[in-house]
Amino acid sequence: MSDEQGAARAIGAAVRSRRRALGLSMRDLSGRIGTSQPFVSNIENGRIYPSLRTLSLLADALHVSSDQLLRSPEKVDRTTVDELPPPDAAARATPERLLSALRLSLAPHERETRPRIHPGEEIIRVLQGEAVLLRESEAPRPLAEGDALWIDGTVPHRMEAGPRGATILLIHGAAGGRG
Question: Which range marks the domain in which residue 111 is found?
Fold first, then answer.
């Protein structure tokens, strides 16, 4: 069994366990996330690997964090806050890892010089300070400390720090990642 198949099965088992604990049917859960019952069945049986968006919808519907659905009882291999890349350094995706992470430190009112654009989705979390997300053809989106956003990485975007500066965690799927 590949690592991806093992991960898909572990996520599926976590979804099934939590769904049952809440007394929900697959049809109930599929209604909560706006999909079909067979799709939920495929996730629970490890036949498909859910996208980040689907994982987030499942977590919300099951009243747990996405991290709780990603935990595997057999193997816990995740990065803790203390193991995040140092400021302005990246932890790149590899064939074994499906995500890349960047901890970005910006001085007060500093703006990233170039917009970022990449395939897939991106999660932005402000760890310290305040920031503004700047996206092509959209109004600026202010973010306070602790705020998080989920965006489409194919739309050019960059961050600008507020008056106190900002430390921002950026996580995005590897190119060619599974959906």
Answer: 81-173
